[in-house]
Specification:
The protein is mainly β. It has helices at 2-16, 42-46, 60-63, 323-328, 333-339, and strands at 73-82, 88-97, 101-111, 115-118, 124-128, 131-142, 153-165, 169-185, 188-199, 203-205, 208-210, 215-224, 228-237, 243-254, 258-267, 278-288, 291-300, 305-314, 344-348. The two termini are 37 Å apart.
Length: 349
């Protein structure tokens, strides 16, 4: 536990004292490894990406490693997503939690398709295929050893190994560090999350080093009446201006056999970059006893929209609690267990 806390303090202190990064709109296009900004999972995207305080499953490897402690048992997530301009992304992650500690990991691969290559005079030189790889190992622990109440606060750390190929290949390491907490707000459970993502030396092609898209996020999420979840997040990314994300999830119907969840969200990241209606997202979740299906759509103005469809298979034997039972347990478990389960496999495309 002590090495985790020490590493967490070092990463956060280093991140907060970065002076070379430019966290403003004037720095758009100055960072590399853009695939690290692609969100994972239909549920988080449908909620506008306001997820650092909500993450409690295998997707926490991406959104906030501290949330791995909240996952129950083991879970696996596989995602295949098709983005704009023919870009595809494949992602596999897992999490295993013992309650007071947890570990996880992921593998990611992005393929940008084939791009024509020319020289400085415009003469064709064939084509090239940009591609990126990312492997992540994560560990998280409850902070009760530091005197905190059991189950209230947790910390997590992820180590990433990156490889990127454009016409030349570059590699580096990066780190994520996160904190998660739970307090009471007017009788309702409030979750808090802070995460520093993609802290590292950047990718070096020849003699030029492209900085990583380091991002700091501070989020909160509150569960109201056992059927509404509201989340908000403020993010400061290197290479762009700070932006706000908002999300909500509503359990519209719940029984012993099925739950219907409605989701909506927005973020202001692309409001000034893309014309037309953009930054708006929405989705639907159908959860049965062992299978759930989640759908998300996100608008990108004149560029079009992206779609995600998630299918979840529960392998555990625990029955899904009702919304009322989940609310009495003082957390977001009715949402987690309705859409995730104890052991889950996610198929996203």
């Amino acid at each position: 536990m002590k090495p985790l806390v020490t590493a967490l303090i070092v990463v956060l202190t280093t991140a907060m004292n970065l002076t070379a990064g430019n966290f403003s709109s004037s720095a758009i296009g100055t960072t590399g490894a853009g695939f690290l900004n692609l969100g994972m999972g239909a549920r988080p995207i449908a909620m506008g990406g306001a997820y650092s305080a909500v993450a409690d499953d295998a997707s926490a490897v991406y959104w906030n490693p501290a949330g791995l402690v909240r996952s129950e048992g083991a879970s696996f997530m596989f995602m295949h997503a098709s983005y704009l301009s023919g870009i595809s992304f494949d992602y596999l992650s897992f999490a295993s939690s013992k309650g007071d500690s947890a570990f996880g990991g992921s593998l990611g691969y992005m393929n940008a398709g084939s791009i024509d290559q020319t020289d400085n005079s415009g003469n064709p030189l064939g084509s090239y295929q940009p591609r990126d790889y990312c492997g992540t190992l994560s560990y998280a622990a409850d902070l009760e050893v530091l005197g905190a109440e059991t189950g209230r606060f947790s910390a997590g750390l992820s180590a990433k190994f990156l490889s990127s190929t454009i016409t030349r290949k570059a590699g580096t390491v990066a780190f994520d560090a996160g904190l998660a907490g739970k307090i009471e707000l007017f009788g309702a459970p409030l979750r808090l999350g802070f995460v520093a993502q993609n802290v590292g030396p950047g990718l070096k092609y020849d003699n030029k080093r492209d900085p990583l898209p380091t991002t700091y996020k501070l989020g909160g999420a509150v569960d109201v009446s056992g059927s509404w979840l509201f989340s908000a997040e403020l993010a400061a990314p290197r290479g762009n201006a700070p932006y706000l994300s908002l999300g909500t999830e509503h359990t519209a119907y719940s029984s012993d056999n099925m739950s219907v969840l409605l989701r909506a969200g927005m973020n202001t990241l692309t409001l000034s970059d893309i014309s037309g209606l953009n930054g708006i997202s929405g989705g639907l979740g159908l959860a049965f006893s062992r299978v759930s299906v989640d759908y998300a759509v996100m608008l990108f103005g004149e560029l079009g929209m992206t779609h995600r469809l998630s299918m979840t298979l529960k392998l555990g034997s625990q029955e899904k609690p009702s919304s009322r039972q989940a609310g009495k347990r003082g957390g977001f478990k009715h949402i987690q267990e309705a859409s995730l389960g104890n052991d889950a496999i996610y198929l996203i495309h």
